[in-house]
Design brief:
The complex is a heterodimer of chains A (311) and B (326). Chain A is an alpha/beta fold and 311 residues long. Chain A has helices at 5-25, 41-47, 63-68, 73-80, 114-128, 146-157, 190-193, 205-220, 251-258, 260-267, 270-295, and strands at 55-57, 104-106, 134-139, 162-168, 171-172, 175-176, 197-201, 226-231. Chain A has a 6-stranded parallel beta sheet, sandwiched between helices. A two-stranded antiparallel sheet of chain A has the order 5-6. The chains are: A alpha/beta (311), B alpha/beta (326). Bound molecules: thiamine diphosphate and magnesium ion (MG).
Chain lengths: 311, 326
């Protein structure tokens, strides 16, 4: 773990999102997409601390979490292309996909809605004694949704093995965090729930892994939930069509200097750089192969549209 | 005077009118002030009216709708925006237990003159959580007025009616209609809420629709005319107050009724129209009432699946043919 594995996984996520953007531009992705470019270190660092059987719940900005949990690349592309994917058969698309086979409870396109569901997965782990933990990622803006508050207090009072990762990219869509909350860090709310809270550099997978690892260990030993606030920046718009007119001049350029992949690149000696180049090439090939495989899948059969409403 | 405006521009014009002519109005919701709204409905309003009149909220629908109610009860006339109708469900208590009930429970001593603006319906590739057409939930709730504008002119007129109303009003627009353009009577007097409208006269069958399905029904009527079937199209406009008289008068002329909406079939507002027709138009009906609606499945994201769910003009044509026995 750590370099170069983290680099490979982050590069895979970045490449996936970039390829998806191109497919969107070419008209191959029907719905809107919310990308995590710049935020890759959070799912990569966090999932490094998990084992098989631990559940992960994410948001519409969840492609990185899916990939970090080992969800199949081809399935992801196909699902977003509206094809008959092995994931959700085209029913969910980019913002609502899931994969029980990889313990990926899934994305959610209702802000904050994942947290109570993740608390439920934590309840199952606790009551069955499986030893699993439930990790849920939300954005900074989601901390202002009533459901999140209710779920956090529930998890606290029930000592549930829940880890809440708040990906603080300082924006709720087009609105700055300063206009959304009166605290400097969202973890200032943690004492209000009686749970530990830590702020970490969300662009550093090691820092994320260290903090999330501590929260996971605490959850596993039965000591209850924790909040990890990972500070990060979006390199792209809120969604695919976002012109980002609300972002101050220079902000994105500055973010590009601090983003996780660039950081590793900057610190690399020539030997490592050569290794990273090789990884980039492998990742690009792997992603392209997945796109080709996804394109070969049929569109879902309309005759099946009423299947799976009920068991 | 009439101006040619896109639907979304008509919304903007109505909001400008509201903030300009009524000092008691305040507008709030997510990304509405500085960013000008996720669809541009509030473009330029913050610049013109400032933060005391229009402001951004955190992602707290239940909180800010409750706040709209309290403000409405005590002297303001809030207009709150729910970005997608799907997000009204996290605030359902506000609609069903709070906003709709306070006037009645206080024996008329409190009023809740507020407007909740939202947009609804499917769009290509949008998932189940961004495609709901929830009008029936609101229409089921006594105490709420519910309007669904189908044209740019109605986007303007109905939103102004909503602002002027002393009852709480839900205005549910359709995202798919935002780019459509049409004449808007910007100097028309403000109408009271309510009133359906015959938008195409016909003699063989009445098609009642609202929101996006009005244009589908008009499209269908055009195609049916080529087959020699004359369909009258009624834009219901408001589900509450419900102008059933206009529907009944039409059915008295045509003897047949088809109701079309994008929402799921079971418990959709089409069921209410069909039930009223069975009660009030029984003697006039020469064929069973037909409903055009999405089947009872959550909205799938893949366009090939959506095409099997989302009702379009062809579905209206098929229903009319069945109704007239062709
Ligand atoms: C209940 C609800 N309200 C509003 C929205 C619209 N919406 C989608 S994402 C978003 C911003 C979320 O910001 P944050 O939680 O910080 O996550 P980020 O998008 O920055 O990752 C909003 C307002 C929604 N999907 N659900
Ligand atoms: Mg954010």
């Amino acid at each position: 773990m750590g370099l170069p594995d983290d680099y490979r996984l982050m590069a895979r996520i970045r490449r996936f999102e970039e390829r998806l953007t191109a497919l969107k531009d070419d008209g191959e992705i029907p719905g809107s997409i919310h990308l995590c470019n710049g935020q890759e270190a959070i799912p990569v660092g966090a999932c490094r601390t998990l084992r098989d059987g631990d559940h992960v719940t994410a948001t519409y900005r969840g492609h990185g979490w899916a990939l970090a949990r080992g969800v199949d690349l081809t399935g992801l592309f196909a699902e977003m292309m509206g094809r008959d994917s092995a994931l959700c058969g085209g029913r969910a698309a980019s913002p609502y996909l899931s994969d029980p086979g990889r313990w990926f409870v899934g994305e959610n396109s209702i802000v904050g809605a994942g947290v109570p569901v993740a608390a439920g997965a934590a309840l199952t782990a606790q009551r069955t004694g499986s030893g699993a933990v439930s990790l849920v990622s939300i954005g900074d803006g989601a901390m202002n949704q009533g459901n999140v508050h209710e779920a956090l207090n529930l998890a606290a009072v029930l000592d549930l093995p829940l880890v809440l990762v708040v990906e603080n990219n300082v924006y709720s869509e087009m609105s700055r965090i300063e206009d959304m909350v009166r605290v400097r860090q969202l973890t200032e709310r943690a004492p209000g729930y009686g749970v530990p809270g830590r702020v970490v550099d969300g662009n550093d997978p090691d820092a994320v892994a260290e903090a999330v690892g501590e929260a996971v260990a605490r959850a596993r030993e039965g000591s209850g939930p924790s909040i990890v606030e990972a500070m990060t920046e979006r390199l792209v718009g809120h969604y695919s069509g976002d012109a980002q007119h609300y972002r101050p001049a220079g902000e994105i350029a500055a973010a590009r200097e601090r983003e996780p992949l660039v950081r590793i690149r900057r610190a690399a000696d020539p030997a490592l750089a050569a290794q990273l180049d090789a990884i980039d090439a492998e990742v690009a090939a792997e992603v392209e192969a997945a796109v080709t495989a996804a394109r070969a899948l049929p569109f879902p059969d309309p005759a099946t549209v009423k299947e799976h409403v009920y068991v | 005077m009439s101006e040619s405006l896109r639907y979304i521009q008509a919304v903007n014009a109505a909001l400008t009118w509201a903030l300009d002519t009524r000092e008691d109005t305040v507008y709030f919701g997510e990304d509405v002030a500085l960013p000008g709204g996720p669809f541009g409905a509030t473009k330029g309003l913050h610049k013109r009216f400032g933060s005391t009149r229009i402001f951004d909220t955190p992602i707290s629908e239940s909180g800010f709708l409750g706040m709209a109610l309290g403000a409405a009860m005590t002297g303001l006339r809030p207009i709150a925006e729910i970005m997608y109708a799907d997000f009204s469900f996290v605030a359902m208590d506000q609609f069903v237990n709070q906003i709709s009930t306070i006037r009645y429970a206080s024996n008329g001593r409190w009023r809740a003159p507020l407007v909740v603006r939202m947009q609804q319906g499917y769009s290509p590739g949008a998932c189940a959580q961004h495609s709901h057409s929830p009008e029936a939930y609101f229409a089921h709730t006594p105490g709420l007025r519910v309007g669904l504008p189908a044209t740019p002119d109605d986007a303007y007129q109905m939103l102004r009616s909503a602002v002027a109303s002393d009852d709480p009003v839900v205005i549910a627009e359709a995202r798919m209609l935002y780019p459509t353009r049409g004449p808007v009577r910007t100097d028309a007097p403000v109408e009271p809420v309510g009133g359906a409208r015959v938008v195409r006269p016909g003699t063989d069958v009445t098609v009642v629709a609202w929101s996006r399905m009005v244009s589908a029904a008009l499209d269908a009527a055009g195609r049916l005319a080529e087959e020699g079937i004359s369909a009258e199209v009624v834009d219901l406009r408001w589900l509450n107050p419900l102008d059933f008289d206009t529907v009944a008068a039409s059915v008295a002329r045509t003897g047949r009724l088809v109701v079309a909406h994008e929402a799921n079939l079971t418990g959709g507002f089409g069921a209410e129209i069909a039930a009223r027709a069975a009660t009030e138009c029984f003697a006039d009906l020469r064929a069973p009432v037909a409903r055009v609606a999405a089947p009872d499945v959550p909205m799938p994201a893949a366009p090939t699946l959506q095409a099997a769910v989302v009702p379009e003009a062809a579905d209206v044509v098929a229903a009319v043919r069945r109704t007239v026995g062709r």
